[in-house]
Amino acid sequence: MNIYEKLDLKHVINASGKMTILGVSKVSKEVIDAQNFGDTHFFEIEDLVKKTGNYLAGLLGAEDAIIVNSASAGISMAIAAIIGRGSQYHVYHPFDNRFSKNEIIIPKGQNVDYGAPEEVMINLGGGRVVEAGYANMCSPKHIEMMITDNTAAIFYVKSHHAVQKSMLSIEEAVKIAHKYNLPLILDAAAEENLKVYIDMGVDIIIFSGAKAIEGPASGLVYGKAKYIEWVRMQSAGIGRAMKIGKENILAFTVAVEKYLNNGPETGYHMKQRLRPFIEKLKTIPNIAVEEVKDQAGREIYRADIEINKNYKKTAPEIIQELKSQDPAIYTREYRANEGIIEFDIRAVNDKEMDQIVDRLKEIIK
C-alpha cells in the first residue's frame, strides 16, 4: 500500500505552476541526499545558520544571507528587523509602543493575496501597512507623498499576482527609498534571477526556496549585512515560531548550488515541450488554444485555452471537473472569470499532458 492509498489521497497533476497548495515543487536526488545528511547528523544550529548564510551570500554576491522556513516568514522577520533596528529589547518586546517607526509603504496594487495577504505578514512583523497610489497605478511620487517620520521601509512585490501596468519599477523604488535613507524590502518569492536585485541595490531580498529553486520548504533572505544581521536576531523572537530544521537548511543550500549551475528550464525548451501539447489541445471542440508568455515577464510559457462563450459549460465548471477525479488536474485559475484556463507545464511530463488532453475530451463535448 503506497502513501496515496494509505491516507486516501488523490494523485495530482500539477499544471498550475509552483503553488504552495500543491506542495510547490519536486526536489532532486541531490537535495534529498543533503536533507538526509541533515536528518542523521547534529550541528551547532547557530553556527549552521550563520555559515550557510555566509556561503550562499558568497555564491550570490550579496553581503549576507539567512535561510528561513518560508518566504512568508522572511517577510515577517524582515519587517520586525527593520522596526527593531538591532535592539535586543525589541526582539523580546516586538509590539512595544515605543517602536512607533513602523509604517511600511506598499503600492496598493501590490498588497495582494498570494495564499495569504501581504499585509498579514507585514502586520505579523509589527508593521503598519500604508498603501500608496491606486489599484491601477503607483508612481514614485505616490510613494514619496506617503513617507512620514514613522516610515520604516518601502515594500515592493515582484509577482504575477501584482498589478503590472502603470507601476513604478524596482529601480525607481530603490531610488526613492535611498533618497529618504529607508531600506527597500523586495518580495520576489517566485522569481527566477537571484542576482539581478543585488545589482539594483535592493537592501533586503526575499525568495521562496521551494519555487523556482526547487528546494524543500524554505525561504532565503539576503542583501545588506546590517539588515540581515537584524533579521538573524529575530530567530530569538518572533522567528522562533518560524524556525527551519537543519535538514532543510542543508537541502536548500544544495538546491541553490544546483540552481545556480543549471538554472530554470529555458523558455525555448518550454516552448518545444508545449508545441505537441497545444496541437493535441486543438483537436478538442469548443475551445481556442494559444501559447502565452508569463504576464509578469518571466521566461515561462503556458498553454491557454479559451472556452467558447456559447458552450454550455463555463471555465470555472470545467476547472472543477478537472480537479474532481483521480488524478486531480490542477490548472491556473486566475483568468477563469474571462473564460480562460491556463496550463503551466513546468512540473508536467509528456504522459501527464496526454492525460490532461484525454480528460478535457471527456469534459468538453
Automatic annotation (TrEMBL):
GO terms for molecular function: L-seryl-tRNA(Sec) selenium transferase activity. The modification N6-(pyridoxal phosphate)lysine is found at residue 211. Keywords: Pyridoxal phosphate. Its cofactor is pyridoxal 5'-phosphate. PANTHER family: L-SERYL-TRNA(SEC) SELENIUM TRANSFERASE. Belongs to the SelA family. This is Putative selenocysteine synthase. It comes from Lactobacillus gigeriorum DSM 23908 = CRBIP 24.85. The lineage of its organism: Bacteria, Bacillati, Bacillota, Bacilli, Lactobacillales.
